[in-house]
Write a structure and sequence with these properties.
single chain; 5-stranded mixed beta sheet; elongated; alpha+beta
Length: about 140
């Protein structure tokens, strides 16, 4: 497999987006979260320049998102950790392992945080490489 060309800071909007990937994982501070597991939802922006594959129509000239989704699903079945931050870091490490270093932005959501009286989701956002959060959006350290 060839490594796809990555998007530089001057190419906003190019890349591959994976949205709403639901993953069952054993992540959480509370013991029952790690024992029984729960749903997470992942959005990814992968900084891959689509121009080469757009011209050649060859999967080898881009990032195979089906392979990446499969790897993320396998990782979710095996991961055991306490924090969303660690899980997000593990996802970034897996992307590098599968496709080499490339710009990535992700949002990882815990779909049903066990907080009394709270029915929303809790999320961590991470960015690596030259792909960054839009201006005005809270960053990972917020």
């Amino acid at each position: 497999m060839s490594t796809p060309a990555t998007v530089g800071p001057g190419l906003p909007g190019n890349g591959i987006a994976v949205r709403g990937l639901r993953l069952w994982a054993h992540v959480g501070v509370l013991p029952f979260e790690r024992e029984h597991g729960q749903w997470f939802e992942l959005d990814l922006e992968l900084g891959v320049d689509p121009a080469l594959a757009g011209g050649t129509d060859q999967l080898a000239d881009t990032l195979d998102y089906a392979t990446l989704i499969g790897a993320l699903q396998r990782q979710a079945r095996s991961i055991r950790c306490h924090t969303l931050e660690r899980y997000a870091q593990a996802i970034l490490e897996l992307i590098v392992e599968c496709h080499g270093p490339l710009p990535v932005q992700l949002e990882l959501r815990k779909c049903a945080a066990p907080v009394p009286g709270f029915s929303g989701s809790v999320a961590i956002r991470r960015a690596s490489g030259s792909l960054r959060l839009p201006l005005g959006e809270p960053g990972p350290s917020s």
